[in-house]
Amino acid sequence: MRCPYCGSSDTQVKDSRPAEDSSCIRRRRVCSTCGGRFTTFERVQLREIVVVKKSGRRAPFDRDKLTRSVEIALRKRPVESERVEQMISGIVRQLESLGEVEIESQRIGELVIEGLRSLDAVAYVRFASVYRDFREARDFSAVIDELENGGAGAALAPDSGDAEDA
């Protein structure tokens, strides 16, 4: 592991412990060259996933991009970070368990919508507004009505855009 301060590859692990929901290992490291201390997280990756965008472009799946999208939807909402991390880990596990190397961005968006629905209604509507490219106030109304009536799916089909761009 390279030191983020000086770029040296001579670093040592000082402490390791399970983090989050035990889906990753948190390691405290120290650089032998400059003495800088930093933390890394190690996760199991079952397979490389490629996201197929609506435009047909392909890009490697980026967990951090998914996390940022979810955090934007959850900004200033009272949701514990552990629950968010569990949701994201669950989405990644579902994607890996599909057994497919290429996954359409729409499928990822659907999984995020399902997860946000159970976490926070406001975040759900925020994400849906970007995911479905809302243009008018009635678009919000339709999703809120669907949320309140307990229906699922049909009102959330994307009109345009990529889920990962949300």
UniProtKB/TrEMBL annotation:
Q: What are the boundaries of the unnamed zinc fingers?
A: 3-34
Keyword Nucleotide-binding among record annotations: yes
Q: Which NCBIfam families match?
A: transcriptional regulator NrdR
The species this protein was found in: Methylocystis borbori
Q: Please state which protein family the record places this protein in.
A: Belongs to the NrdR family.
Per the entry, the cofactor note is: Binds 1 zinc ion.
Q: Which gene encodes it?
A: nrdR
Function of the molecule: Negatively regulates transcription of bacterial ribonucleotide reductase nrd genes and operons by binding to NrdR-boxes.
Q: Which domain of life is it from?
A: Bacteria
Q: Which UniProt keywords apply?
A: ATP-binding, DNA-binding, Metal-binding, Nucleotide-binding, Repressor, Transcription, Transcription regulation, Zinc, Zinc-finger
Q: Where is the ATP-cone domain?
A: 49-139
The cross-references to Pfam families, in alphabetical order and at most eight, read:
ATP-cone, Zn_ribbon_NrdR
So which cofactors does this thing need? Zn(2+)
Please give the name of this protein. Answer: Transcriptional repressor NrdR
